[in-house]
Amino acid sequence: MAGLKSWNEIAPPHLDIVNGSFDEALFAADLGLVSKGEGPQDYLDAQLFVQKTYLTANLRTALVEIGNRLAGNPAAKAVHRMQTEFGGGKTHTLLSAYHLFGNARALSRTRLARQLSSSIKDGRLPQATVVVLDGSALTPDRTKENRSPGRTLLGHLAFQLGGQGAYEGVRAEDEARQATSTAHLVALLKRYTPCLILMDETLEYLAKTITADGDQGALTTNTLVFIKELTTAVANTPGACLVATLTASHLEDFTGINHEDLLERLAKIFGRTENVITPVEGDDIFPVLHTRLFQSTGTPAQRRTVADAYGDYYAEQFGDALPAVYRDPVYRDRIEAAYPFHPELIDLLTHRWGSLSGFQRTRGALRTLAHSIKALHAEGRISPLIHPGDIPLHDPGVRAEILKITGGSYLAALNADIIREDSRARIEDQRRGGEVEKLRLATKLATTAFVNSFGSDKVPGASDAQMTVGVGRPGLSRGALEDVRDTVKNVAWYMRYEGGRYRFTTEPNLNKVIVERESAVPEDAIAELLEKATKSVVPAESPWRTQTDVLSSADVRDEPRLTLALLDPEHRVEPSAPGAVREAAHRILSEYDQSGRTNKNTLVLVAPDTGALGRARALARTLAAMRELRDDVHRLKRFNQEQQADLRERVVRAEDRLPGLLTTAYRHVFLLANGTGGSPPTTQHLDLGLPRASETVTSRVTERLRSGDGLLDRLAPAALLSDRFDLLPADVEAVEIEDLLKAFRRFPRLPKLASIEVLRDCLAEGVRRGVFGLVSGATWQAADAVIRIGEEISPDEIDFQPGTWLVRAARAQALRGPGATPAYPSDTSSPRTGTAVASGTREPKTSEAPAPRPPSAGPTSLRLHIADVPADKVRDVVKVAVLPFAAQGAEVRVELDVSVRASKPIPPHVIDLVVEEGLGQLGLRAETYEQ
What domains lie within the chain, and their CATH numbers? Predict the structure, then answer.
């Protein structure tokens, strides 16, 4: 991670988070339970509670305002309405007021009390009588459950202010479930000032009154009247303060109730006198989370180092591909403030999940984060920050929180794509290996899409930018991230890409439907696709006749034409053990049906690679399934227009890709080569490696054989006389040219000729240059034989039939006798005679005829020094300065001195794996020196 420490090295979690012993109730503060002496000790113990409370600026302002009101400051607001969005919200604020002003004397020496006292009248926290009216804990008319004789909020207020004596003063109104007057309430409050009234879950209590009243509405109306009178009374009673929350957390439990109407009526009542409190807003949530979850979040310098590394990473790797907000210096400040969380994770919980009815902002988020930290810490995975993609959905605690808001219907999607070892994303991680598997990049990308699939956004799902920041971290290249992202999109079963967003649904996507259809694709459909595509990658291009599906020697004819034959897939090559296929290839190359093959040097076989053929076969199966789905009008209606277009594009891409996979598969070339020491021919195996774009099997084989002097488009005349070719032994003066042609077709020791014209051109040039002569007649020594040497001759005149011999130059000259003239060349436009090199008989000798040119003399040994050859010209140099000598039959050896200079360090794997391993496969080695 570019030298950055993992988050858990800098920010150790609380021990109860690490070992999983934390009480989930710690993240579900309940004011009503605390007021009854119930709940976790962290909330009941005032000293412990204030010790773990982080004082945000807004929370401080609210508590100071409440404290001044209770202390008798007439300028302080009396009525406050809580308005919170996330984390350390309304209940925590109410509990802070409950403990600080209900236990002011006991808490006066605490850090929190000292932070507040200097801003409160008289320089100290006022001790007050605290009344808790929690709508979730109170039920109309159930006095036993409420631990109060009161039946209405009025009765509960009086009883909590002054016990039974105060209650007796309002008993009549309470038992009649009626409101009282403002004056009566003012009198009641004055007797017990300073007093603090905390109203929580008010809307929930009103919903209960509707149920208890049998929908008559009297109790609800009287409750609303009481609340109105209470706000007025508090505002007119010095030392009295009211703090209320209007919304409810569980209104989904009360079906058929017009929540919006009740909320609107409440808002109007409080709107007359209220002061709005927002204790936590914006990035105030960061330190709240830190306080509750971590022992420490490191030093400012440590956090800034991480923030700057991410800022540089976003700017350098992605540039304008990321919105400016992520590259702005202000975002570095947010990363520093949110550490060890990525701000995107907290924004996700705040803006998306925070609006969901099934997700309690504070408690749900804290539970999710606590379980996430526990799981990530236990797994020991290294990461500078905790990103959205790092949420461990496989952890039971995290998964339980997620399914609360998504519903159990998404469990199938999680199992199929993310959390199981055999899930689609996990398999992709394992397939790629290396850093991708170590980072679990595919799983994290799928997780990012999943957690962004729910919430208040009008368009669910993660954008490209959100996918990037959801997993991207220093050291991870943009190319790797985007490549894996695009692959996950094409392998996941429940993730969709629509409108530029990646999101999960409960319905299988195209990938899953296609996979399901693949199992029903018949074998003959796959075979038909492969057969058609295979024929397209081995076109019958000069100089080859081509065919496919060669299983045995009887499948490929024994003929003099050059034949390029693709072996049947049954003869596929295992890279680690090509021996079995080599043996089968040797039989086909050497035999024809039940007898020996005559033209052993005209046949080249190509076998498929097992792995690559398997990939081509898998793609053919997928293509067949996609075509079937494309043509299934009824099933296709389940997908929208964008998905249908995606299917059509996939079909086109698969059709384009299949030939390329088959070209890659057919890479193992088998051909006969000369045996050593006079032994029978052996089978040579050439691996063509990976193809370039637009190459075919035919073009690859042609280029490989040409580059190795195994296929000639031009033949030097001297080569026919060379010891290497051994066509004319030293004690033999002549050979029929028909036998020469047959030799090139039959003997694997010789190179393959691209066409018969190669030999014709060679013979014509040899005659012209006087390298040898051509003699036609009954025998080459016949008195009436036509002798051609040292003269122009058209290749078209040369016909490979009995009666024409290649004769050594000296012998041909001797046959002509001293002063002999060359025969007149026949008209090149006239048809050939069929048996003669030239048409007629000898012409009369004349003294004016030029003397025949003797064979040109030249060196028998030569050394070339060619310097400063650029990399892109090496192949050309070999063609013009090496292969021509080999074509002459000379033994050629080349030493390469390669000088490399690069602007950046050369990766060791390029030297060790690419260069040295590649040379090793050629039977060569290199000595490498660092300069």
Answer: 25-247+260-280 (3.40.50), 293-507 (no CATH), 523-706 (no CATH), 727-816 (no CATH), 871-921 (no CATH)
